[in-house]
Design goal:
The chain has one domain. Helices cover 70% and strands 5% of the residues. The chain is built from 17 helices and four strands. Strands 1-2 form a two-stranded antiparallel sheet.
Length: 540
């Protein structure tokens, strides 16, 4: 009976995971196909981008399965189910999840440090017409070696870096949590893998602060504001064209009698001719947008977009409040900076944490909510990247536009999204620490109450408590994800301060987005550095 129950519940968790996997693959294919350039699309870059994005999302989808398995080992009264009463059985179940993390994280390292860089540099070399296929592969491998060296260095550092943190004020609780890290084992390469993934997650944190925080404000406000009227934009564009043509005629009139134009006038004439070319291209795009059925459908769905925008902004505010409460809780009740601000239970009421704990027993409601949260982070990150473009400090490297994104830009986009999704695991822990660490587990505490009656003595009864660091060693099982996230205390410390930076960046982005007006219906489609040939793939 216990074996059948174990098989049923494990099959349920993994079947939902398999369904989400199929949904993730379909989403990645649609998204990449939507943005890739039709003229420059390549099979290898497309497959690489889809696989990289899918692996990142699948890794996040493994988190609810991890939480589900540790939670369903126990009854609501705090006692273990029959099939989970044996420590060896519980260890085997958690090892399954652990090996899943091993596999996915190893694939992520392969993508980040070998496959994506190789494909990227291969297409960079392809721009040179004088280079043959062999030279392309050779040069791409040459540049990829640098990434491989970085990966090896990170793995070596992770394998030998000391895990002992300085003793904090709450040394007893810290020692208990530290024992959990040692229990996970360091003989299977976990520290090396965890250090490498934590380093990538650190880069993902910077991307989250830059792109996701801004996307969380710009996406809902754009939905609420809507776009400008196509008819008004066409009228305004026509007036601008007439004004520029009039200025060009005035400049050309100066040289009708044979006199050459001054250098300043020639410079102004070149600028005006370039501006006129952009305005005419803009007019063509506006004309296409006016005839496009999607524009008409979008106008009909305007009330729905407003409601969706209001929902998104409320979700963003909920996340921000939950993150603020969680950080405040860590600041006041954690073991301190020397232990990575690890918190033992929740001392302040966190709305998102309470919601997830309430939904967790009714599987798969919590799985659906976690998937929605993950996809929300991805969508807002995509919105942030699309509005900002891909930058290296003050230099914009690529633009992300539907049907016009180069293969190299797509690879860059998927690399950023992969790193962002890696960091969402810690973000979800910050939003709901109790849920991510123990799920809905409880444990039974024996209490002795004086007996009432003729026979003197004590009656033994049990009190159910929510699992935390004070629980006995064998009474609560910590998720493998939590141990991955907190293997190195100094990374947890950096993530903690990164959460404060994320809150600040979101508030700044919210103010900036509120101050901006409505965006154009052809936002990002026409820019001065585009060529006329780039319109061909858009029109067709």
């Amino acid at each position: 009976m216990a074996a059948e129950s174990l098989l049923t519940e494990s099959a349920l968790g993994w079947s939902i995971f398999a369904f989400v996997l199929l949904v993730i693959l379909a989403f990645c294919w649609v998204y990449i196909r939507k943005f890739q350039s039709r003229q420059e699309s390549e099979v290898v870059s497309t497959i690489t981008a889809i696989c990289a994005l899918a692996i990142a999302l699948i890794t996040s989808a493994l988190l609810p399965v991890d939480i589900f398995l540790v939670s369903f080992m126990k009854y609501p009264n705090g006692t273990y189910k029959e099939w989970a009463a044996n420590n060896e059985t519980r260890g085997q179940i958690e090892d399954t999840v652990l090996y899943g993390y091993y596999t996915l994280y190893s694939i992520i390292l392969f993508c980040v440090f070998l496959w994506i860089p190789f494909v990227y540099f291969y297409y960079e070399e392809r721009d040179d017409d004088n280079v043959n296929k062999c030279s392309q592969v050779k040069n791409a491998l040459k540049y990829t070696v640098g990434f491989i060296i970085v990966c090896v260095v990170l793995l070596l550092i992770g394998a030998f870096v000391p895990l002992q943190a300085p003793p904090g004020q709450n040394s007893t609780q810290w020692e208990k949590v530290q024992y959990l890290f040692e229990e996970l084992g360091s003989g299977h390469g976990l520290p090396a893998l965890s250090f490498s993934i934590s380093s990538l997650t650190l880069i993902g944190m910077l991307a989250v602060i830059t792109y996701t925080a801004y996307g969380m404000s710009v996406l809902p406000l754009n939905l609420i504001k809507g776009t400008r009227s196509v008819l008004y934009e066409r009228l305004e564009n026509t007036e601008d064209i007439e004004d520029v043509e009039h200025q060009i005629e005035k400049l050309k009139a100066k040289c009708k009698d044979g006199r050459p134009l001054s250098s300043r006038d020639r410079h102004n004439l070149q600028e005006l001719e370039g501006k006129l070319q952009v305005l005419r291209r803009r007019g063509r795009h506006l004309e296409i947008a006016e005839r496009n059925c999607c524009t008409k459908v979008g106008s009909a769905l305007r009330p729905f977009k407003i409601l969706l925008g209001v929902f998104f902004i409320l979700v963003a505010l909920l996340f921000t409040v939950a993150l603020f409460i969680s950080n405040l809780d860590k600041a006041f009740h954690s073991a301190g900076i020397s232990t990575g601000f690890i918190i033992f239970g929740t001392n302040l009421t966190n709305p998102l944490n309470e919601l997830l704990l309430a939904l967790q027993p009714v599987f798969p409601l919590d799985y659906i909510l976690i998937t929605i949260i993950t996809m929300y982070f991805v969508l807002t990150s995509m919105a942030g990247i699309r509005n900002m473009g891909i930058w290296f400090f003050w230099i914009r490297l690529y633009k992300i536009r539907p049907k016009r994104t180069r293969p190299q830009a797509l690879l860059f986009l998927c690399m950023i999204l992969l790193l962002i999704v890696l960091h969402t695991s810690y973000m979800i822990y910050s939003l709901a620490p109790q849920y991510v660490m123990y799920g809905s587990q409880k444990y039974l505490v024996q209490s002795h109450t004086p007996s009432v009656g003729l026979v003197p003595g004590n009656d033994t009864s049990g009190i159910t408590k929510i699992c935390d660091a004070d629980a006995p060693k064998d009474e609560c099982t910590v998720t493998r994800s939590y141990l991955f996230l907190h293997k190195f205390w100094f990374f947890s410390t950096i993530y903690y301060f990164g959460n404060w930076a994320f809150i600040g960046a979101f508030l700044i982005g919210l103010v900036v987005s509120c101050c901006r007006g409505k965006k154009s219906v052809i936002e990002g489609e026409v820019e001065a550095d585009d060529s006329d040939m780039s319109d061909d793939e858009y029109v067709h």
